[in-house]
Amino acid sequence: MVAKEAMPLLTPHKLGRFDLSHRVVLAPLTRCRSYGSVPQPHAALYYSQRATKGGLLISEATDICHRERGILRLQASGRRSRWKLGNPSSMPSTGRERSSSARFGMSAGSPQTGFLYCHMVEPRMAIVDGRRQILHGLLPFRKAFNGTFIAARGYDREEGNKVVADGYADLVAYGRLFLANPDLPKRFELGAPLNKYDRSTFYTQDPIVGYTDYPFLDGSVAE
User: Fold this and answer.
1) Choice between 117 and 32, residue whose per-residue pLDDT is larger
2) What is the spatial distance between Cα 152 and Cα 123, in angstroms, rounded to a whole number?
3) Is 35 left (phi over 0), alpha (psi -120 to 50) or beta?
């Protein structure tokens, strides 16, 4: 009997000292569910719902500072040492300084020691023959970075498997699909139908609706 070939998205991957059991990553999303820039208990529930053994979850964005409420995703380059910038008082407060921070983030894609991964977002999808199509515009960055490369935006199960199998990306980050399906890796494994996301609740501040109330495959909602 021939063994069933493993789904690329569900194969293990070594990320620094971490042994990932699969390659389905929760993308860093701006969900506006913190109050006064402070994470609340419902955030812990949100992430615990989506946690799997050996899975990678990238947390939500944070304010750069209280005075100018731009957004910086500290995890975007995967450089572990940048977590110390979480203190708003240490963050840039002018447009010029923010621009310098952005340039730093762009340079983080180079293959330098100390970078755990490079996480990049695809250009917006094009319409080809009436269907949305990912342009796969990240290849130059993939070639330039020697470490773990994460691609995001517009991926589904089929396309995610393809880019991992082709070596275009090591991991694939899912935002809207993972938001609406807390057990997304399991659904991918089983080929199960997906919950539809509710776009109208993406940026509301309700601690439950559109955040922790999406059901699991068995119909339950973890509390």
Assistant:
1) 117
2) 9
3) beta
